Amino acid sequence: MRNTTATQPLFDFSAPGRRATEFPAAAVPTKSLADLIPAGALAKEPPPLPELAEADIVRHFVNLSTLNMCVDTHFYPLGSCTMKYNPKRHERLSRLPGIVDLHPHATEDDSQGMLAILYEMQQMLAEIAGLPAVSLQPAAGAQGEFTALLTAAAYFRDRGEKRTKVLFPSSAHGTNPASAALAGFDCVQLPPTNTGFVDLKQLQAELDESTAVFMVTNPNTLGLFEKEIATISKMLHDVGGLVYIDGANMNAIVGVTRPGDFGGDMMHYNVHKTFTGPHGAGGPGSGPIAVRDFLGDYLPGPVIQKTETPSGVRYSLVTPKKSIGRVRSFSGNVGILLRGAFYLRTLGAAGVREMTEQAILNANYMKARLQDVLPVPQGELCMHEFVASAKKLKDEAGVTAMDIAKRLLDYGFHAPTVYFPLVVPEALMIEPTETESKQTLDAFIDAVKEIVVEDPDMLHEAPHTTSVRRPDEVGAARNPVFCNTACGPT
Ligand SMILES: Cc1ncc(COP(=O)(O)O)c(C=O)c1O
Questions:
Q1: Atom number in ligand 1 closest to CA 285
Q2: Ligand 1 pocket, 142 CB below 6 A?
Q3: Gyration radius of the chain's alpha carbons
Q4: Domain 350-477, what fold?
Q5: Which residue's CA is minimally distant from atom 8 of ligand 1?
Q6: What is the pTM of this model?
Q7: For residues 476 and 490, what is the distance between their CA atoms, to the nearest angstrom?
Q8: Which CATH number fits domain 88-347: 3.40.50.300, 3.90.420.10, 3.40.640.10, 3.40.710.10?
Q9: 250 C-alpha to ligand 1 centroid (Å)
Q10: Which tens digit of pLDDT belongs to each residue from 276-320?
């Protein structure tokens, strides 16, 4: 019989009086709870907690932790998410006592070491972006977008310009319009094109003196580099607008080209993706932004400043002159920023370029080998990822992108991103990252080639080997049940 310890509620193992540990009798006189806590604050009944032995608890959680996939256990080609391996060395460094024991409220004097690392990170991000002013505060890419748009709004307000429109291509990530709307702008979506690139004519038609920002992901969400980005930037600048580069796909360009060099005025990083902060399941993230010098005064504060004094170097927290205020406590999600800083230090300038080149090579290798079963409608060569389509397979055999994704779980691979971007029918967005070997890529390719000729009826029911099969994904997201019914009302 299969061991179901991992998926059964701990309440099932509860027995009255069972304990993980026993406390020795107190060597001092004891008092009852009623003597220590006012009657009105005392619960009438003890909380309904399971009573368990230590082994039950440990086995339950250890088994539970193995039911999901992660980059330490499986190949995880989740397009747009850059699920690269997180080096353990940087985990260890970020947990050094001098780092973890530093209280966020420690004085500037006592935090000089931490501020030095964060200052260096700020400078490295400025250098990689080609944009000199950086705020480390935003806690994710989406918050970076929102923060940069608030920064742009403050800049236009200060100049007395009433610019209301934010434009973006239809292939944009959903967070782009969401951030623009939240920052108070009107959203204008450019219609999809057949090529996958921004259509310059359509863009020109929307540009006027009310245009504030054009948001564009480069390489775009189809994994293609927007070759006309310099022209696009000039078009925006000619009407007084700004260009926002969504940096989610920086893994394809770090060390090769820079958003600031191809005309971007603002950008965010996803440190958790490009620079290996462990992520997945919604966090933790870090989305610092980099902007041009004329926008620097509006950034959220504080930022970290370095001053050379006769007695040595001093790092301090300063608020830019016209700052939009804080968007996150302290200096952002420091745990992830540190891992990113150590990663960049480990690789160095030559290393990050190699990282990028390898990511592009891996994606193109997979694209070329999968092309016969999963064609890629847009682009001959891709950057660090590509978007294949299962449309032909669906038309001919009724097998969908979702069927393939779910069946891959049975083969021991995390699924690619599916149904994004919306401009590709039956989309499977595959991002292998640079950290995978040719053997791993080949194993995944072989699995896909086996899956596409399997019995469609069996595929519709996949996965067959996981503890959870096909949940109602919308229902699970909209009405999550976090609590087992045994522990009372949710
Ligand atoms: C293109 C793009 N932009 C923005 C984001 C938002 O980043 P985050 O998830 O860190 O908020 C993502 C996340 O997947 C993305 O792929």
A1: 10
A2: yes
A3: 26
A4: Aspartate Aminotransferase, domain 1 (3.90.1150)
A5: 141
A6: 0.91
A7: 15
A8: 3.40.640.10
A9: 11
A10: 999 876 668 999 999 999 999 999 999 999 999 899 999 999 999
